[in-house]
Amino acid sequence: MDCSIKKQCGSCQYIGMDYQKQLLIKKEKCQKLFPHHFVHDVAGMEKPYYYRNKVIVAFNQKYEYGLYEETSHRIVPMKSCLLHDDETHQVLSTIQKILKKYRVSIYDEKKNRGFLRHVLIRRAVMTNQTLVVLVGTDHVMKGSKNFCQELIKACPSVQSVVLNTNRRQTSVVLSKQEKVLYGKGFIVDQLCGLTFKISAQSFYQINHEQCTVLYHRILSLLNLHQDDIILDTYCGIGTIGMFLAQYVQTVIGVEINKEAYKDAINNAKMNHISNIHFVNGDASEFMHQLAIQKQKVDCVVMDPPRAGSTKTFIEAIRTLQPRQVVYVSCDPTTQARDLKMFAKIGYQSHDVYPVDMFPHTEHVESVVLLSKLNTKKHINIELHTDELDLTSSESKVTYQEIKEYVRDKYGFKISTLNIAQTKQKCGIKERISYNKPKNENSRQPACPKKNEEAIIDAFRYFQMI
Ligand SMILES: C[S@@+](CC[C@H](N)C(=O)[O-])C[C@H]1O[C@@H](n2cnc3c(N)ncnc32)[C@H](O)[C@@H]1O
To answer: Sorted alphabetically, which InterPro entries does this protein's record hold (predicted)?
Structure first.
C-alpha cells in the first residue's frame, strides 16, 4: 500500500517499501549501533497498518486538516492515513463539519490570532473509546455544548472532549491547562489483561498490538522471584509495573508527569493491585534518593524518553546493585550510549531485541537485558591453544582489542590474558581457566561462565574462532 501525500507529509519515511525490507533495515541499523551484541530479528506486525492510536492534526483556514509538512508548519491536508484507523478519520471529518458549520475560528500562527490550534484524537482500541482534545487559545470555547452534542451523536465512540488552553507561541502542542467539556476527561483501554485509564496528558504506547509484544519480551527477559522488589522507572500510567506486579512482592513506579502519575494510582486501584506504589518525580533523582537510603532493589525496568537515561540514574544503579535491569528504548542511539556507561559500573548487556512499534517510519524500539557481574574486577584468564597465536605480529587481534571488547560489552577488566601454546586440539571452552568468583552460592548465573563467555564472544567477534 502506498500513500498519495507521502512526499509532502514526510512522517512515514518507509511507506511504500516492502515491509520485510523495512524490518531488515531496522535490524541493520541496530546492528550498527550495537556492533558487539547479538541483534535479533525485529519483531514485526502481521498487518502493519492502522496501528496508531493517537494523532494530532492542525486545521487551516479552509477547515482542511492534516499533519505539518516536514520541517515546516505548512499543513498537508489529508482525508485518510494508512497509520490511523477508520474511526479516527470518522471523528476528524465530523469535527471538520462542525467547525465549519459554527465557523469556529482557526488559529493563524503568523498573525497569532484565532482559536483552534490542534485536535488530538486518542483511541482505546480494545474498548472502542475515543478521547478528543481541542487545543485552543482561550479557556472558553463558544458553542462548546452544541459542538460536543453533535460530535457525540455522530460518533458514539467519543467518550470525552477536553479543552486544552495553550496561548504560548510554541511547537509544544499541549499546555497544562485543561477543562473537561464532555465526559470524564479520560478513556479506558485494556492491555495485557488489565484495564487502564488514560487521560489527555498521559503517555500511552501508540501501537497496542506491539506494546503487548514489547511487555511480554520484558517479562521473558526478567528472572523474577516472588520476594523481589522491582522498580518501573519512567512508568507512565503504570502499565509495565502493573503487568509485572503479579510475579513479585513489590513494585515501585516513578513518573514525572503528574497526570500520568494520578492515572497510575487510579489504575492500580481499578485493577485491585495493592503491591504497587507510585512516586511523582524525576526518575534520576528518585534513584539517587533510593541509593542514599540503601533501598533493596532486585530488578529495574527503565523506559526513558528518546533522550535516554542519565549519569545520576546509572550511578544510583551502581549503589543499588539490582540483579537485572531491562532497558526499553524508543531511540537505540541513546540506549547504545547508556549501555557503555552501564558496562563501566559492572553491568553486562545481553542481546538486543528490536520491536517494530512504528511500521513505515524509520523508528524502532529496542529492549536489552543487563545483568550484574558478580565478579572480581580483575581476572586472570589462561588460554591454551595451538590454533591462535595472538602474540605473533601477524595476528588479527591484539590483547588490547580483546580487553577493550570485554570491558565495553561485559564491564570487567582483564588484567592479564595468558595465551599458552599447546599441541592439543580441543574446544576453546576447555582451554580457558579463570579465578573463582567471590560468591559461588549466589543466585546469579555462575561468574566463571560469564567470564568465559565474554572471552569466547570476543574471539568470535574478531573471527579468531
Ligand atoms: C517512553 S514513555 C514510557 C511510559 C511507560 N513505561 C509505558 O510503557 O507506557 C516515557 C515516560 O517517562 C516519563 N518521563 C520523562 N522524563 C522523565 C523523568 N525525568 N523522570 C521520570 N519520568 C519521566 C514521560 O512522562 C513518559 O511517561
So the answer is: MeTrfase_TrmA_AS, MeTrfase_TrmA_CS, SAM-dependent_MTases_sf, U5_MeTrfase_fam
